[in-house]
Structures are given as structure tokens and as C-alpha cells.
Amino acid sequence: MLRLVKYLKPYLPAILLAIVLLFVQANADLSLPDYLSKIVNIGVQQGGIEQAVPQAIRQSEMDRVMIFLNAEEKAAVLGAYTLKETSSADENILKTYPALASQSIYLLNTIDQAEVERLNPVMGKALLAVYTIEQIQADPAKAKAMMGAGGGFDLSKLPAGTDLFALLAKMPAAQTAQITAMINQKMSGMGSNVIVQAAAAPIKAEYQALGMDTARLQTDYILRVGGIMLLLSLLTGACTVAVGYLSARAAAGFSRDLRKIIFEKVSAFSSAELDKFSTASLITRTTNDVTQIQMVVIMMVRMVAYAPIVGVGGIIRAIGKDASMWWIIALAVMILMSVIVVLFSVTLPRFKLVQKLIDRLNLVTRENLSGMMVIRAFNRQDFEEERFDRANNDLTGTMLFVSRVMVFMMPFMMLVMNGLSLLIIWVGAHQVAESAMQVGDMMAFMQYAIQIVFSFLMLSFMFIILPRAEVSADRIADVLETKQSICDPEKPQTFPAGKTRSLEFRHVSFRFPGADENVLCNIDFTALPGQTTAIIGATGSGKSTLVNLIPRFHDVTDGAILIDGVDIRQVTQHDLREKIGYVPQKSNLFSGTIESNLRYADEDASQDELMAAADVAQASEFINAGAEGLATEIAQGGGNVSGGQKQRLSIARALVKKAPVYIFDDSFSALDFKTDAALRKALKEKMADSILLVVTQRVSTIKKAEQIIVLEDGNMVGKGTHQELLANCETYREIALSQLSMEELA
């Protein structure tokens, strides 16, 4: 994947924006369990009371609270409140606190959260002590549950109606301190949140005594926090949509660019580079492999950035809720990662094999479709079906194996999550029973644990699909990083202006890359305008290889090819090929119309020019025979025209170019002798200013050629006219006599 990262640069802004949105989304998702915890703890259990520091408290109640505070705590508490006398009450305060009409109250000043956190345990413990004693006074039977703290003071022996607070206020400071110490000892195991939760009952009772609407207080809190959760959910949804759009756009654009770059790269390949990759493999790399990369880019943007944020953030927040249960998350993650490592080691080799099997299936399919007539002619349908089934079953079996292994992930993940939930509930229930944890915190911890497991699961999926994507990326990079053996010069020359005067092979030798021997040796001749230079030889003698050197489909190994005295390697490939009209050995037409195929050589050619080229190529007769003429549809590969018609259209296409050099690589083989003769005559008349190179195995086609080059095993064994070669070249004479009689050769 790293080899393709540079092609992602245009999409970095979109990816960075997506990561920012994922950070926002992750924080919103991590906040939801915390707010749920607040609804359960504060909204439901605490009646909407958020802190142990009440917003208002009656003066009489504050006096009782002061009994259980030391001097420093008294100063801190009284400093946080302002005493509001009955006489100074305004209408708004009375509306909120109706009890102010009959008695003075303390109102909480505006203080920061840090001060609230400092006062929470102080006020919470004192309020609980006051509330407990008030409950005992209301029910004397409860007095037995609280024994005097030292000095044998037994609350159960007090006379009925005794004001305990008045009694405590008159007690020596030492005894009061002992009672306070006893209360603090009983509450020592309670955390700060639990103290706040426990203090909610006395604060709620105090608010009721003040005449406040405590039901509305609870409802308002739940609606407020629920509204925040709803907004966070909407924010999460918006971020999800935006990230999905950005990731899909970046991945699709990246894939489009890759396909374009691959196509442009392959289009510039010479035959040497094309020999390294099969056509089926190049198609797979351009389609299936790029699709794999596209899918991984989407998942990487959406998961690789999101999962770590959620995982790390979830761990921090979960431990913040209860650090004692960290081992539960660690256990779940270890189990999950162990299974993922096992699955990864099992599936990785198969993932690497999948793309090769797809190549193989594409190759077999392509060969069957292109060679269907041959398969039917030899009754090999059963053999080819078995061959296709083998390739198909190999791919299917591998994919099924990988899928079956991957299917195990989901039920195992559900087992881990459900087991994790049960363990958290079991351990958390004990913590709640011991007043060391709140119910809402336990629920939040459970949700954080599930988020953490999900984040590791998302990363695991990435680790599982990355190997296949890595294979695809390497296959694509191999194509893109292939060095072209044929390149334009840094400082290209240009051909001389005017008509082309000569095409010269100057002691040319050629060998294929990696070969030990030359396939062409010391080829030396000059082709001139107005003349036909024919190249003949036995099969495999190097005829097509020789003419393919002219448009630089291969580069010469030794020697040089010159046009008008300029080495063709010193000009751009574009300028070189502008001078050449090329008709390959295997005629190839493109889907479209006859006109679109002819215009392939010159888009600006007129209708008259198209028909003139068709006349020379002896194609106008069958073109005009059709009802649609030049607009006649051509199927893919020219499948709806005969071999001879395909050759004539290919020749016409080359002639439309009006090039100074024409190469006909065995382009008359499908023509009958009459059409062949008419075509050669028309070429001689209409292309008098062009250099014609004709590769053929028909002696009759080249009898009148001004120059014939005879090849044998890559060596030029003869050069001259027909009559000269009959007299001087044994190889040519053998070829000629194998085709024509002595009378016909004369």
C-alpha cells in the first residue's frame, strides 16, 4: 500500500477533514454512555439533584449541619452561601423558594466546579448525618441502631420528644467530634459519587421543605440531558454521513486515477513490457485489484482513524468510571486479539492466493471466448468446461475457506461481548451493593467496554482484509513501476521538412530481452518512395519482428534504423508514428461503425477521403452494399465481418492517414488473388510518393516489387528483384517453386 500512497495526495484534504469529523464523532459517541450514566444516577436515582451542595437551605437546617463540621469546614461552607432574610425577599426568589416567606434561608453563591467538588463530601456527609438523626427523631425505634459515640451515650435511652440537635449543640466539643468521627468512619468506604447520590435524599427533603417543585426538577434534568444526548446522536449521524461521503469520494477518485494511470502506463508499454504481464492479468489489475484498493481506502478512512480514538478514549473513560474493573476489559481484548491472530495466520496465505486465481479464471474465460470457434470445431467443449471448472472451483474453494473462517468472527464477537456484559454486571452489582459504585456508572462502564471491543474488532477486520489489498497494491505498483524500455529522448530531434526520401536499415540486429541469441542479424537495406520493398521468408524467420522495429514496438539491439538520415530513436515516438501507416498481421477493428474505424487514423478526414481509401483497399464494394454504408455497425473485434473484409478495412484505415511510410504485415493473406492484384495495383498508383513495406509469404504478391528482402533464421540471405533472386538466392527459389510453377514464375 505504501507504494501507492503518493497517488493519494490530491485527496489528502478530504481525508484530513474526514479524520477531523471522525474525531468529533468518536468524542460524541464516547460522551453518550456518560450522559446515560447521568440520567440513571442523577435523573432517576437522585431526582435530578446533581451535587451534594444544595442550591438553597433553611437557616435552621444549616445550623444543624454546622454541628458536624470543624472550624475550617464551617468557614468554607458559610463562605459559599449568602443568608437571605425574610424581609429582603423579592418576588422571584419567593416564587422559587416559598419557605422564604416565613423563615430565612441560605442561597448558594456562584462558585466554580472545583469549589463544588471540594464541598461535595463536606456537605454530603454533614447532610447525611443530619438526615439520619432526623429520621431517628421521627422514629424512636431507630435509636437503637445508633449508639452514642463514647461516654456511654445511648440515643435509645433519651426521653421521647428530646431535641437531639439542641442536645448535640450543648455537648462538649470532644463528644461532638467523636460522633462526627463515627459518622465519617461509616462513610469512609463511599466514593465521592456515592456520597452525592446518598445526599440526594436529604437535599430533596430540604427542597420540599423549601416548597420547591422537586418533580419538575427531576423532569427538567432528564429532558435537558436527554436533549444533549439527542443532539450528540444527530451530530454523530451527520459526521457519519459526511465521513462516508468524503471517504467514498476520495476512494472513488483515487481508484479512477489509478485506473487512468495504469491504462496510460500500459498504453505506453513496448512489446517487451507487455510480455511480462498477460492480458488477463492486466485486466484484473485494472479492475479487481483497483476495486480492492478502493474498498480498503474507504475502510481505512472510516475505521483506522475512528477505532483508535474510540478504543483509547473508551479505556480512559471506562477506568474513570471504575478503575478496579480494568482487568475485565483487558481480558476481553486479549481473548479477542488471540483469536484474531489465529484467524489472521490461517487466512493470510489464502488471501494472497485469491488474486492469482482470479487472474487464472480471467485467462481461461478470455481464451474460451476468443477461441470459441476453434473449440467447437475440435469438439473440445467438454475439455474446456473441465478446464474452466477447475479454475472456477479453485477460486470458489479458496473464497469459501476464507469466508467460513471469517464467519466465525461474528458469533465469537457476540459471545465475547455478551460474556463481557455478564461479567461487568456480576462484578458491578457487588460494587453497587458495597456502595463503591453507582448503577449508572456500571451501565456506562459496560457500554464503554463494548465500544472498546468494537474498536479492536474494526481494527481486526482491517488486519484481515489488508493482506489481500496489499497483494493488489503490489500488483498495481509492479505495473506502474515497470521501467519502459522504449522512451523518448530528452532532447528529441525532428525529421527534415518535406517529403520522406528514404527508410534505411543500417546493419540492424535484434534480440528479445533476456534471450541469448539474436533473432535478426545484420539487416542492411534502404527502402525508397514509389518503390515496394517486400520481405519474405519461412515462418519464424523474423519478418514481423523486422517491421515492428520501424514504429519502435521494439528497439534495435545493434545498428540503426534511419528515416531521411535521422535515427528513429532520436525523435519522439509520436513524431515517428505520425509518418507510419501500419496494418498488423492480425487485423483488429474496434466496436463502433465502419466510419469510426476509418477515422481512427484521422479524425478530420472527409467522407470523400474515407471512400477514396476504401476504394484503394477494395472495400468500397461491400461498404456500399450495406444499407447504412459507412454507418454500418462493427461488432467488438470485427466479429460481424469476414476475415478478408476485416483486412481490407484495416488497410483502408491505414491509407486514410496518408503517411509517407506504409507497413503491411502479411495484410493480404485473407484476400483472394483477384482482390490482392487489384489492391496492389491501386496501391502502386495512389501511393506513388510513399515507401511501401510488404511482409508476405505469397510470391505472387511481390513478383513486381522493386526490392525483395529474403530472411532465413533472422539473416538476410537475399536482396533484389524477383528475377535476380530466382537466379541468385536458393532460399527464395525454394519458396517460389513451392508456390508457383516455372511458367508462373517467369
3D architecture notes:
With 746 residues, this protein is α/β, with parallel strands linked by helices. It has four domains: 38-222, no CATH class; 268-480, ABC transporter transmembrane region fold, CATH 1.20.1560.10; 503-579 and 659-745, P-loop containing nucleotide triphosphate hydrolases (Rossmann fold, 3-Layer(aba) Sandwich); 592-652, no CATH class. It has a six-stranded mixed β-sheet. A four-stranded antiparallel β-sheet has the order 5-4-7-8, with no helix packed on it. Helix 24 (673-686) links the parallel strand 12 and strand 13. Helix 1 (12-45) runs antiparallel to helix 17 and helix 13 (326-370) runs antiparallel to helix 16. The protein starts with 11 loop residues before the first helix and ends with a helix.
Topology, element by element:
Blueprint: H1 12-45, E1 56-58, H2 59-66, H3 71-80, E2 81-84, H4 91-96, E3 105-108, H5 113-138, H6 164-170, H7 173-186, H8 192-209, H9 214-267, H10 271-274, H11 279-304, H12 306-321, H13 326-370, H14 372-377, H15 381-407, H16 409-433, H17 439-480, E4 503-510, E5 520-527, E6 532-537, H18 543-548, E7 558-563, E8 566-567, H19 573-578, E9 580-583, E10 592-593, H20 594-598, H21 607-616, H22 620-625, E11 633-634, H23 643-656, E12 661-665, H24 673-686, E13 691-695, H25 699-702, E14 707-712, E15 715-720, H26 722-728, H27 730-739, H28 742-745
Helix pairs in contact: 1-9, 1-12, 1-17, 2-5, 5-8, 9-11, 11-13, 11-17, 12-17, 13-15, 13-16, 13-17, 16-17, 21-23, 26-27
